[in-house]
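Hi again,

Forgot to attach this to my earlier email, sorry! This is the prediction with S-adenosylmethionine bound. I've pasted everything inline since the attachment limit keeps bouncing my files.
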Amino acid sequence: MTDTDTAASSGATSADAPSAGVLAAFEAATGFMPVDEGLALYGVAAEAAARTGLPLLEVGTYCGRSTILLADAARRAGVVALTVDHHRGSEEQQPGWEYHDTSLVDPEVGRMDTLPRFRRTLHAAGLEDHVIALVGRSPQVAAVWGTPLGLVFIDGGHTDEHATGDYEGWTPHLAPGGLLVVHDVFPDPADGGQAPYRVYLRALAEGFVEVSVTGSLRVLRRG
Ligand SMILES: C[S@@+](CC[C@H](N)C(=O)[O-])C[C@H]1O[C@@H](n2cnc3c(N)ncnc32)[C@H](O)[C@@H]1O
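Structure tokens for the complex follow:
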């Protein structure tokens, strides 16, 4: 499937594209999501928010790069974006690992803390009022959550334990017709870790239907 197919099959239209200001804020933010995947995420988030009228939820806030897009899609539909993170970083972001950023270490605590950068990012984008930041471990937050969701975006820990915990914790809260979006899905192990791919396969086996593919971003709809 191509990116053109993505727009057609997701129901996204040019009206589902971010403004130049929101796109610039996204591009300036610290994070990992490429622009083509961000545009696809924005399109399906805007569609899901408008169609369901329900909150959009992200697992894996980091410094707020993808959150900017969910926040603006939520703002346009009059709903709210929720974003969950313990803000201590994933395994691959710890000291000595490939994605470690020394500027994100709290010197007093001696551990990663992405919350201050996230807050500054959202403030600069003018989107603070459209986001609820949930600071904690994803399965713990999911276990006490009680509101149906229009979209669940999984971009948290990339081990099997964490990716599976995100899937099992949050998909029960997804409304019928709601969208499940999984980032970093790599069918070929040479391209990346396999835990998100295994979550994606499990979702298909459990009745989700594929809506679109953009890079490593997979969008599925709950049947
Ligand atoms: C790949 S980053 C998210 C990237 C972000 N979506 C972006 O666009 O730049 C993954 C994030 O998930 C968080 N994380 C990992 N495991 C978690 C867990 N079990 N509960 C909450 N957050 C978790 C990490 O702290 C990290 O900030």
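Residues 31-33, 60-62, 65-66, 84-90, 114, 137-138, 155-157, 162 surround S-adenosylmethionine (CB under 6 Å). The beta strands are 56-59, 81-85, 105-106, 111-112, 131-135, 149-154, 174-182, 209-214, 217-221.

That should be everything now.

G.
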